[in-house]
Amino acid sequence: MGIQVGGKKGVMADMNVVPLIDILLVLIIIFMVITPLTPKGLEALVPQPSPSQQTPDPAILAKTVVVQVSVGGKLKINQEDHTWQSLGPRLEAIFKDRAEKVAFVKGDEAVLFADVARAIDIMRGSGIDKVGLITAKLEAGQ
Hints:
Elements: E1 2-4, E2 12-14, H1 18-34, E3 44-45, H2 58-63, E4 66-69, E5 75-77, E6 80-82, H3 84-95, E7 102-107, H4 113-125, E8 130-134, H5 136-140
Parallel strand pairs: 3-8, 4-7, 7-8
Antiparallel strand pairs: 1-2, 4-5, 5-6
Helix pairs in contact: 3-4
């Protein structure tokens, strides 16, 4: 605070706001630098149900890759049995020539979420850009 002496009004106190503005500018700069460093979650796609009368296109079905996680850690890639160790190399082989790297994960109702998250992690590590989730209601067209 500053004090002015003299004049007709007598002693008058003025607040010095310069240090306050300096502190606020430093805080703004700190927050602007920290904001882009915040971690992001996984991006997930949820396919939209198609109308019940419409039959799926066979060309699209041939390109679709679905990793199914069952109870007990059993894995399937498009009805082909696999283990946790063979999942990553097999997905890399499937997607090495494809431009669109999109796959889906389907988990049974009783499967632990940790198993589904492990499958998603292996899929992302295999170079798949987008991972979609398939639920029982979505598969039934609801």
